[in-house]
């Protein structure tokens, strides 16, 4: 196999589906284009994704795919995806989408590189859904309850997504779907290392590649649950602490438990439930990433975490200065590929 493709090479290749793809369905796709008439990508830390429509026939419906092209090589990608696919078929979770790992996926420089052909999941990314429903505590409460059920189902099915964050969580019609399975853990992968460490605004600050197992999602699952619960009670947290690439926490908040502004603002809500959840997050920061409790254990006995946490909950004499939430920089859009700025899977036309 030759040198691994870069963004420019992927971008050029997908403009010619019949030549680029080995899969018969992908050879006939039409890619979503931007206003310049160029393929419209969604970029993440490990892959670039293109939205492609496969034309329907007399007896078949039109299909829409997410074509994931990897930005770096992972030697056992095929084995991992085979294990993930086999386990997901066995457990029948309602939160995943259909996908195929294609070892002979895309041709670049006369060499074949792997891709994932994944059903396009429609809906709002988690942070977009939250922003639309900030004025509806009931909607956020319903989402929080469904999130707890999802996390419970993943635990019961022995599945860890590996990167629970707003860009991998879609909400549509009240249902939740998870996308991007590159970092997923299933029992057949026990003993291997993680291929990625997840979004820094959701992961335990001490997580390493060795921290890969059924417990991997526990910290991020609680961070999301606490964020939803807090926003139900105080929508001003969104304006103050949402940066465009998080919910209300950033990595530095976990590294400065109790000292950054978000912790004191949570205390000012005056809710015993929020205090206990915040204490649970702070207590988990002090523990090994793979030794933290699951979300159900926190919800069943939240007071125990308040007792074990070393984080001060005292309210300062004056309100802390608001944290300025830097918005993502607007990137110019020349032909290729520096303008590849959009992160996630949501298509505004799906609204």
Task: Give an overview of the whole structure.
- The protein is of the alpha+beta class and 351 residues long.
- The chain folds into two domains: 7-121, Phosphorylase Kinase, domain 1 (2-Layer Sandwich); 124-308, Transferase(Phosphotransferase), domain 1 (Orthogonal Bundle).
- It has helices spanning 7-13, 17-20, 24-27, 77-91, 126-132, 137-156, 218-233, 236-241, 251-255, 261-268, 272-285, 295-300, 303-308, and strands at 30-31, 41-43, 47-54, 63-70, 99-108, 111-119, 124-125, 169-172, 175-178.
- Strand 5 (99-108) and strand 6 (111-119) form a beta hairpin.
- Helix 6 (137-156) runs antiparallel to helix 7 and helix 7 (218-233) runs antiparallel to helix 11 (272-285).
- The model is unreliable at 312-351 (pLDDT under 50).
Question: What's a concise summary of this model?
Answer:
With 351 residues, this protein is α+β, with helices and mostly antiparallel strands. 34% of the residues lie in helices and 14% in strands.
